[in-house]
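Hi,

I'm pasting everything inline rather than attaching a file, because the server keeps stripping attachments. The sequence lines come first, and each chain or strand is labelled.
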Amino acid sequence: MKPILVIAVNFVREQRWPILVMLLWVLLLAFLGLTTEAARQGEDLLFMFKQVAVYVIAFSVFFGSSAIFNDRRSRRILSVLAKAISRQHYLSGLVLGITLASAIYCLTLGITGVWTLGEAGFPARQVWFLMLCLLAACMLAGTVSLMFSTFLNPFFAAGATALTMGLPFVLSYKSGDALWRLVIPVNALAAAVLKSSFEAPATGSWLPVFLALGETLVFWFAAARIFSYIDIAVSVE
Amino acid sequence: MQMKLALEFDHVTKEYRSLFGRRFRALDGFSLQVQRGEIFGFLGPNGAGKTTAIHLAMGFMRPTSGSGSLLGEPFGHAPTRRRVGFLPENLALYPRPAEQLIRFYGAVNGMKASELKPRAGEVLEMVGLEDHARRNVSRFSRGMLQRVGLAQALVNDPELLILDEPTSALDPVARVGVRELLLKARARGKTIFLSSHLLSEIELLCDRVAVLHRGRLRRLGRTDELLESYERTEIAARGINANGFRGATGLDRSSWQVGPDGMVRIAVPLDQQRATINQIWEAGGEVISVIPQRRSLEEIFLEVTSGTDSTPAGGVP
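And the predicted assembly:
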């Protein structure tokens, strides 16, 4: 377990600059909270909050799609996987790292959201529920992109992830059956955040959160199986 | 027998495929056994398949056919690598202070934080970097980086060290330091599998060597026996008819030199020395001198890899 945590912390450390850039958005939200009258402009703040929130899903896809590629291109992966760590554990470390990076963002956004939206009357409990939805969506989206990145380059891995996450939404839209959205519930979780309002802050249920956690395990397992067959010493250029 | 082997390749073949299906065979039915407690030199020109063999042993890739074992476990068995130290060729490290980096690699290897702190300092001292422990490795020279690489390979006090070109970027002083470090490791019963282009170093360090060429094992044996098998003697003689004598003995043209003073110099393998001297006497000649010529590993390597070597492949004759 400890090597997995070490890999995860190392991942966050390596991604510290993108994470800091992400946090600038949250800082912008905090600045708006300071300069606007929350009670009067609560809707604007909520719109901004929702927008800033869903960015992290895209970031987690980029984190996931480039993590293995970066380590392979730089050949740093060789000195890591030369240690007593299996490829499954290495991937677990990356999934945990992506989750940690997303959690830092969600935590900061949650604190800012409670402070800015709380003043406008948005329940703090709902802010944290939305952050949990967001984190579950990031975990699943990051793991799906990590799975594709085991055999595709980051650009195609990100594209394949977008297609995989978008397909259930399209099927749901075409068939009118909302159950499709639960197949890969990133869309359902993002919708929970985007549809929240002062009138109906709780638009989501716990089901997509649990489904996302379960599916993360499934995609992690698939990623580990595929990655175990990859010649990692072969150049990725 | 199996328990005594540190590393074994059993008819391993590795093929790379391009995107368009073209195949390249990097290793072709390669078999090798490395005993525990020896320093083993792994030689071969660029593209011979040395790094591929090492990457297979470390589990970075799978063989197309054949199998192998590392410390008695099949290639790719992660827990076994806790007892292995590996220094890759073209080493790449995360940019952070040297001591932190060593602790990171130790932690990935499952070492406890309490044992890592003193051990990181110890291994950095071993490679002569104790004064640079807090400096970021991104500011290190290539030679210093290679020493950090060696330190991370040593952090877990491994039973088997697999080193791919460990001294290629080192200055002569550091190279001597690494050589002493490896000899000390062998004295403590460690096994060292050393791939290097620095043949003089291999000659000094290794108990046994293998020469790989185009994915196949060309030579394998004890270093001293290999050098002896290629030992020659230069016999200087006069009073013989050079052409007639050469025809009678069937000696190779390249082993024969006639000086302007009529002195004939003949280079013959050690086992033909006595017979050649007898032939000179029988032809009425006079032997002036007999000088043994020990050949370097470099000369043997060049012969083996250039195809001019007439010794049967696969072992020491």
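Chain A touches chain B at residues 2-3, 6-7, 10, 13-14, 74-76, 78-86, 89, 229, 231-234 (CB under 8 Å).

If the labels don't parse on your end, tell me and I'll reformat.
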